[in-house]
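Design request, tokens follow.
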């Protein structure tokens, strides 16, 4: 389940390979991958012949600005990743979208579960779609402690699902939210509105270091290897995780067994000793 560090790692690979290039061909092998488009043919129609001007990211969305007013949007969903290859190279299984550039580079989207998607949106579609409801980016646009606390005030929702709410903060998913809460010493089930000012400050202070550590290690490739870097290597942040995926194993800080519970349908890992 690629989150901000995996998507940002992917973006940094794509920038030198794609920016300034022109899209010459598109192949959609699974129509489901363009389901956000009003007509399936819109994607190819809108991107072929366009130059890729700039590749940005907001939360978990990759946003490629094209030479027209179209934005090519990519979301990796639960199991998606992007591979860079040259036309003619063997394809990985589950290669569902292939975008060919004028230098024969291919940007391939691999997504076994097809929860990801690509779309080519016009400005009015960008303004009306799910992107418009995204909160500030957790890495590039992290709100101040005061702003975060004001947005948590009076809220009964546990802090963990609030951190996953992309309208609250864009980019955190299940892995990094658990790691952020461990680093800040806050139990995932705490009501958001109950956090004191110094706790919100610790929480805010944990977000960037955790995301940057994930980035330094190329993101987190789980055992299923669904997420890989665009050059096919695995991200190795998995071995650095403090709580996620470590049920019953000793806390790296205090030795207490890490606990797991399902909170709002998501697996949640925490140390009952280090997090209050
Ligand atoms: Zn502990």
């Amino acid at each position: 389940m690629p989150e901000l560090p995996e998507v940002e790692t992917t973006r940094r690979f794509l920038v030198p390979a794609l920016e300034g290039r022109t899209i010459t061909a598109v192949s959609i092998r699974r129509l489901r991958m363009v389901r956000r488009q009003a007509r399936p043919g819109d994607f190819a129609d809108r991107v072929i012949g366009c130059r890729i001007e700039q590749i940005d990211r907001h939360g978990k969305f990759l946003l490629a600005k094209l030479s027209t007013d179209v934005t090519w949007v990519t979301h990796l969903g639960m199991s998606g990743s992007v591979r860079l290859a040259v036309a003619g190279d063997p394809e990985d299984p589950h290669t569902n979208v292939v975008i060919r550039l004028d230098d024969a580079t291919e940007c391939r989207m691999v997504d076994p579960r097809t929860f990801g998607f690509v779309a080519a949106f016009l400005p009015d579609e960008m303004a009306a779609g799910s992107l418009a409801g995204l909160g500030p980016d957790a890495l590039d646009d992290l709100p101040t402690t005061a702003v975060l606390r004001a947005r948590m005030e009076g809220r009964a929702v546990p802090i963990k699902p609030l951190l996953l709410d992309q309208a609250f903060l864009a980019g955190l998913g299940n892995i990094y939210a658990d790691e952020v809460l461990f680093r800040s010493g806050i139990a995932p089930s705490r009501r958001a509105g109950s956090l004191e000012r110094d706790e919100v400050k610790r929480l805010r202070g944990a977000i960037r270091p955790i995301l940057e550590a994930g980035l330094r290690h190329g993101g987190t490739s789980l055992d299923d290897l669904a997420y890989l870097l665009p050059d096919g290597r695995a991200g190795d942040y998995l071995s650095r995780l403090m709580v996620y995926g470590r049920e019953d194993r000793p806390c790296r800080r205090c030795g207490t067994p890490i606990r797991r519970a399902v909170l709002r349908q998501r697996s949640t890992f925490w140390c009952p000793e280090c997090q209050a």
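Comment from the thread starter after seeing the answer: thanks! The beta strands are 23-28, 52-58, 61-66, 71-75, 81-86, 95-101, 105-110, 117-121, 259-263, 266-270.
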